[in-house]
What does this fold into?
Amino acid sequence: APYARSNFATLVMSAGEAQAPPSSPAAAVGSTQQAEPMETTTEPTAIPLFDIGANLIDGMFEGTYHGKQVHDADLHAVLTRAAEAGVRDVIVTAGSLHESKVALALVRKLRNASPVRLSCTVGVHPTRCKEFEQPGPGCEDPTTVAALLAVAKDGMRDHSVSAIGEIGLDFDRLHFCPREVQERGFLAQLELAEKTGLPLFLHNRNTSGVFLSTLREHRHRLPPAGGVVHSFDGPMDEMEALVGLGMHIGINGCSMRTEDNLHVAASVPTDNLQLETDAPWCQIRRTHAGSVHVKTKFPEVKKERWDGKSCVKARNEPCYCIQVLEVLAAARGDEPLALAQKVYGNSVRMFAPWRCEAREP
It folds into this structure.
């Protein structure tokens, strides 16, 4: 996930809005009414998909690129395309306290309007952990674990919050946040999982084994629900070690760039697999080794020629989760529908176990 995003809050809540428990889902946003129900234009595919990580509060879904407004906000169309491609659930990822509030507000606003089920994460991305020491965007004071816990518990009341994240370590971008600050932030946020029981949505980038050793050392603090190391692109031995700790492995376009990546992705035990897009990032590119296995294509236009109906070229979105499935199934020699059904079950059990108890689909 990126280290900074445009201010999506203008669509769903005012910056700094108090996180008081809402009397209804709509009360969490600026408007007192929920959005109008969305309608899909085609019958959804029978293949069930659960996109466990999409940055839907990124400015690109407002039509904003590099601070410039290029086209209208189009989240309505994005979610409609997702539903038509078989996506039934999307987890909206957050990377700061402010974003956690914004994501929660978005989920509640669209509760009865989105054609896919939405939930969100609560947590601070490793590259943003400076906000534990100084006020981050949209906040007047430094972030505290207590403040994050309050948002998480609020969202758990109506199943709007489904994971703690995106938390972890990122040694590729130490210019945004020093290693020692990231490590303190990571360990501090494990308390959120301890106190909520929610699964972890984890970030691990170029940490040379430090991330893995941290999980091992603090294994006793990990929630019973476990967690997923998202956007995984590491080597085989790292994948196997993480699976040995009970972790799930999140696969997206960035996980299948090379033949080595494909081999690792194909070797993840089915019981530990999760699918994601990490939209608007990590799309499968023509240069990626797995691109030859893509069967489902979507009309695309450049952002300057946005038409409100087509996907925006080079902007990933949840509908492309079907392509992740197709590439992964081909690499594993699996039948796509059977693999999708199995992985969808993994996702529901981890991120929405209450649906299993209620026997909801």
Summary: Residues 1-33, 37-43 have pLDDT under 50 and may be disordered.
